[in-house]
Design a protein that fits this description.
mainly alpha, single chain, 12 helices, globular
Length: 323
């Protein structure tokens, strides 16, 4: 049986997983370009449409696949419903802050938030799961904290967008880890729980303020409806990739999202990358490199230990070897 950290023997299986993983992270990384097309619409309205059209897309998808049973079980189970409600709040906050970051021209902060997110995950694991960070992980966390602190001093304010994105997504991952839900049923249950509030806000907004922005233009309606597909598909792709790729590969892929967001912010949106910002990013990137190197080293150690154990057990696994 293949070990979780070992390379898959089926190269076509792993290659397909890599393509799905690249597609998911590339979509997330380039999402600011799409959200920027909706800059004239208030972020709360974009969020409400994101929830609405995600629900529509997922309902159709689950109906075609015949997978309603786990969704119904989640919604009916009071304990599971609490976990899903909490995760829905976290992902709702994350989506709203991300939309606000793009609308206000602060995609660099969004990029920073997703760069430090894996390090925030380590801290959350320590606080809530009793995990003990390794020495190199402490170094990585320290470097990230120094980078954020330096950026706070340099720009005269806390980078709240970066911190909110990192913490909200970290908490979302923690909650989904504890909730008894698969990726698609869990996401559908989340958007269904958010749907009443989203629909109420859209009704209020369209009734009173629809004339302020071109919400009724066919192009705008098409963009708003497509955001549900762009929200749901990357998660499905990522779930497929997670089942086909080793964890170390998934760990490397997660940095594609903030890297693309960084490139989009500087090259396409022309956000100012001052020396202070660049030095802060440099410190955070140093922490990321330490973290990635430590993760890769840990995987190698586990692989070597497993190979040594297999070598020791091999003589006793042959028929008649035990006498």
């Amino acid at each position: 049986m293949t070990r979780p950290d070992a390379p898959y023997p089926d190269h076509s299986h792993a290659r397909a997983g890599l393509l799905y993983g690249l597609a998911a992270h590339a979509t997330w990384g380039l999402m600011p370009i799409y959200i920027r097309l909706l800059a004239e619409i208030p972020p709360t309205v974009v969020l409400a449409h994101r929830v609405l059209w995600s629900a529509v897309f997922l309902v159709v998808l689950v109906s075609i696949a015949g997978g309603w049973r786990p969704v119904v079980a989640l919604v009916r189970d009071p304990r599971a419903r609490l976990w899903i409600l909490a995760s829905a709040v976290c992902i709702g906050v994350n989506w709203l802050v991300f939309i606000e970051a793009v609308a206000s021209g602060r995609v660099l902060q969004s990029s920073l938030g997703y760069f430090i997110n894996p390090l925030v995950n380590v801290g959350l694991g320590m606080l809530f799961l009793g995990e003990r960070p390794r020495p190199r992980q402490w170094v990585a966390i320290g470097l990230a904290a120094v980078g954020v602190g330096w950026l706070t001093v340099a720009q005269g304010g806390v980078p709240w967008i970066a911190l909110t994105l990192a913490v909200s997504f970290g908490l979302y991952g923690l909650l989904r880890k504890r909730a008894p839900a698969g990726p698609v049923p869990g996401l559908l249950a989340e958007v269904l729980l958010m749907l009443p509030a989203a629909a109420a806000w859209l009704w209020v907004y369209h009734a009173g303020y629809a004339g302020v922005v071109p919400l009724n233009a066919p192009s705008t309606i098409a963009l708003l409806s497509l955001i549900g597909v762009l929200t749901s598909l990357p998660l499905i792709w990522f779930a497929v990739a997670a089942r086909r790729l080793p964890m170390v590969t998934l760990g490397f892929l997660q940095y594609l999202t903030p890297t693309l967001q960084f490139i989009v912010a500087v090259a396409l949106f022309h956000e100012v990358l001052s020396p202070e910002r660049l030095s802060a990013f440099g410190i955070v990137w140093a922490g990321v490199l330490v973290f990635v190197a430590d993760s890769a080293r840990r995987v190698r150690e586990r692989r070597y230990a497993a190979d040594a154990r297999d070598a020791l057990e091999a003589p006793f696994s042959r028929p008649g070897a035990r006498g």
